[in-house]
Amino acid sequence: MIVTPSNQSCGATVTGIDLTKPLNAEQVAEIRNAWLEHHVLSFPSQKMSDDDLERFTLYFGDFGHDPFFAPVDGREHIAAIRRDADEKSPLFAENWHSDWSFQEHPPAGTCLRSIIIPPMGGDTLFANQHAALDDMPAEMRAKYEGLTAIHSAQLAYAPEGTYGDKDAERSMAIRPDETARETQLHPLIREHPETGRPGLFSCLGYIIGFEGMAQEDALPLLQELYAWQGRDEFVYRHKWEPDMLVMWDNRSVLHCATGGYEGHDRLLHRTTIAAHNA
Ligand code: SIN
Questions:
Q1: Do 91 and 234 contact (CB within 8 A), yes or no?
Q2: Å from CA of 244 to ligand 1 middle
């Protein structure tokens, strides 16, 4: 197995391994170590099926619980990230986020397998949140130290949210509901549960405020933080090819979809890897 770092803030390409075949314990350990080091791994030229995607996911934990998405036909744990060539709805997930950070035990990771990739555009951006914390000026960090963030899916998946009732034309099988209003607390700065490395967890969007802080004080803090978290120096830009598997660590990075492929289909299949304590 060959791991080639992106030379950006995170990300590495992994070759010399066949993910359409079962992996042995040594191979799984090697991938896990590379994932914890680089936070985002891409495996090009993997002609994987959905069975292969599920088998790969389960090497790293149980399946995570994916609310607000209907799974693809015949699968309980695979969701389609899909956009049709003639689609008019706003891009899905074109904002920084950490998947399902509003859950009590958010998923450790996400796996995304490319099926149809447009000839241009549609890159996924990843922002390293260990680097974002390490490089934060002390006077800025002092404003965020010790804060507990309030997470919720309401802005996205409540009936009046971005993907709510007004978004009915979308090709993706998104299912908004009232449970999106639930809230969950997580420390804003926390140690990675496996590496112990401190980082910022999640961002404005799924974070809707800070515990014990008035909204008019929390919102500017969250906006300033969001701008910092996605600075160019923390970002790895992932360029997709068909038959590529990408796995990322939601505890270490934010990610964000991008457009630029109007008139072309884009389709990927996604699983989440549950947290160890879920
Ligand atoms: C996602 O946020 O899961 C999708 C990312 C992408 O479509 O690039």
A1: no
A2: 14
